[in-house]
Design goal:
Elements lengths: L2 E2 L13 H11 L5 H7 L7 H13 L3 E2 L12 E6 L7 H6 L3 E2 L2 E8 L10 E4 L7 H6 L7 E4 L11 E6 L2 E7 H7 L2 E3 H5 L2 E3 L5
Parallel strand pairs: 1-10, 3-5, 3-6, 6-7, 7-8, 9-11
Antiparallel strand pairs: 2-10, 4-5, 8-9
Length: 202
């Protein structure tokens, strides 16, 4: 797998080192009970779980490198997409406001079911898409799209990053073989904080 050097990338605002940033998120990422999370699906306000997942998604943009052909042209924006149900509320929109990835403005896109996700640079698939995630991921098998999920078998279905619980905290796993097919490049610092698959399953 290709690895970025330790400088990573920078947004318009000064950022702390990735290790401090993600360790801070991991330390704080105490997940609410499933009953509370279910209530959040009917509310415009995200739970603590999805506020933290939004922070992870935003920070992934700084430590993953996309090939040039991931964009239609040099003026294309960076699209952070949510397929189906959106439990993030305004948290993602707030995080990406006035931010950029290598000079490209970041937009949050909410995709209806059946939409083509190949124009996305990051695609988040919620648990509610688990019945069709294999079909969606098969269509993106070699595409330079960072797919992120949270449901069972996401990595087995060739998703790239999986959110999972470890001692009631949110962590993430990386499917190394699937990443290699996409030509995405993940920072070595980010990989050191992840659980790696297939070598290690969460």
């Amino acid at each position: 797998m290709a690895i970025l050097n330790d400088h990573g990338r920078r947004s318009r605002r000064a950022l702390p080192p990735l290790a401090l940033l993600l360790h801070g998120l991991l330390a704080a990422a105490v997940v609410v009970s499933s009953g509370v999370a279910g209530a959040a699906a009917r509310s415009p306000e995200p739970t603590a779980e999805y506020t933290l997942k939004a922070a992870f998604l935003f920070n992934f943009t700084k430590f993953v490198e996309w090939p040039p052909d991931a964009f239609a042209d040099e003026k294309s924006p960076f699209n952070l997409c949510i397929l189906g149900e959106d439990r993030f509320g305004a948290s993602l929109d707030t995080l990406v406001a006035n931010e950029a990835v290598h000079g490209r403005p970041i937009f949050v896109r909410r995709l209806p079911r059946g939409a083509d996700p190949r124009a996305c640079q990051i695609l988040f698939l919620p648990r509610t898409e688990r019945e069709r995630q294999a079909e969606v991921l098969a269509g993106l098998r070699s595409a330079p799209v960072l797919t992120v999920g949270e449901s069972d078998r996401f990595l087995d279905d060739c998703g790239l990053l999986l959110f999972f619980l470890d001692a009631d905290r949110i962590r993430f796993a990386v499917n190394q073989r699937a990443v290699e097919r996409t030509r995405l490049t993940i920072s070595s610092k980010m990989l050191r904080l992840a659980k790696l698959v297939p070598e290690e399953h969460p």
